[in-house]
Design goal:
The protein is an alpha/beta fold. It is 39% helix and 22% strand. Strand 7, helix 6 and strand 8 form a beta-alpha-beta unit. Helix 2 runs antiparallel to helix 4, helix 3 crosses helix 4 and helix 4 runs parallel beside helix 6. The longest helix has 21 residues.
Length: 313
């Protein structure tokens, strides 16, 4: 359809002369610029290497987006990125990690309307969507405050006989894979990722395709908040396809599972035993309850290191 043109006369300043100006009149109708929902790996937004996609519908069954269907290769790429990023993230000062988590919360707050609309797409009432959003922001701030405190609380000087001190203190487990729940599209994701990265770990999270729009928008907030690439990786895909890889990969140190499916739990626990991977079931928590935020979730993904220091010699 050709663009219609209109002509008008304008006065050239100073001399009173006029000339014709061609202006472009807008179409009466135009196509929306639809957002492309990709994966989030290593601080980038790639498409799935398989080229596959999944449809995302709203609560009324209306198609709202296509999202990538992550593959085993996508997961392996995310593990490589997470492993590369984890050491540098763990070496950052606790204060710095806290500032970055706080920055994510600030970024979310600035995009409040967008996230509430995303949450509402799953049939959530506006008041409930607002509550979920506010709890999500508050949860990030809560764990931002714990980044420089949990080590003091959970470290210890141990009694020992001899001319030495004995210290125990927490260190991050390493690379953590996360399988989030299908409900509470934003809050459930943040409630798991925040304690994982607050403790210096990196993670790869599997998000249900129905929550893809919220999850990838959250990835954009992470991307804009000084989080180093690879610290958080988000994949949208099918659980029955990816859980076996999430739980068996030999370079993943722990897996957090938030569902209640007995077969999925059995698969995770069996595969985790192959390389003594820590398998955590966080499926008893109601993330809407503020009591579910606590430093013990950070400690679930810490290793206790003990050192000996001579004295009096």
């Amino acid at each position: 359809m050709p663009i219609s043109e209109t002509k008008s006369k304008i006065e050239i300043s100073g001399n009173g002369k006029t000339q014709e100006e061609t202006s472009v009149a807008p179409h009466s109708q135009r196509l929306d610029v639809r957002k492309t929902y990709k994966l989030y790996i290593d601080g980038k937004f790639p498409r799935s290497e398989s080229g596959r996609y999944l449809k995302v519908n709203d609560a009324n069954g209306k198609l709202i987006a296509n999202t990538c269907r992550a593959s085993r290769k996508d997961f392996r790429d995310a593990v490589v990125a997470a492993r590369k990023a984890q050491e540098g993230w763990a070496k950052k000062s606790a204060y710095s990690r806290g500032q970055i988590l706080y920055r994510i919360a600030e970024t979310l707050e600035g995009r409040k309307i967008q996230f509430i609309e995303n949450i509402k797409r799953n049939g959530i009432a506006e008041a409930e969507a607002l509550k979920e959003f506010q709890l999500s922001v508050d949860r990030l701030i809560y764990y931002a405050g714990w980044t420089d405190k949990y080590q003091q609380v959970f470290s210890s000087v141990n009694p020992a006989e001899g001319s030495y001190f004995n210290f125990s203190y927490p260190e991050p487990t390493g690379v953590v894979s996360v399988v989030a729940t299908e409900n509470l599209s934003l809050l459930s994701l943040i409630s798991v990722i925040a304690p994982v990265i607050a403790g210096g770990n990196s993670c790869i999270a599997l998000v249900h395709p129905q929550n893809a729009t919220t999850a990838i928008d959250f990835a954009e907030a992470i991307h804009a908040s000084d989080v180093p690439g690879g610290v958080v990786n988000l994949l949208t895909g099918l659980k029955d396809e990816l859980i076996p890889h999430f739980s068996s990969h030999m370079d993943v140190n722990a897996i957090v599972y938030c569902g209640k499916d007995a077969e999925e739990i059995k698969t995770i626990q069996t595969n985790a035993a192959l390389n003594v991977k820590r398998a955590l079931l966080w499926n008893q928590y109601d993330w809407l309850d503020s009591s579910t935020q606590n430093p013990y979730l950070i400690m679930d993904l810490q290793e206790i290191k003990t050192t000996w220091h001579p004295v009096g010699i």
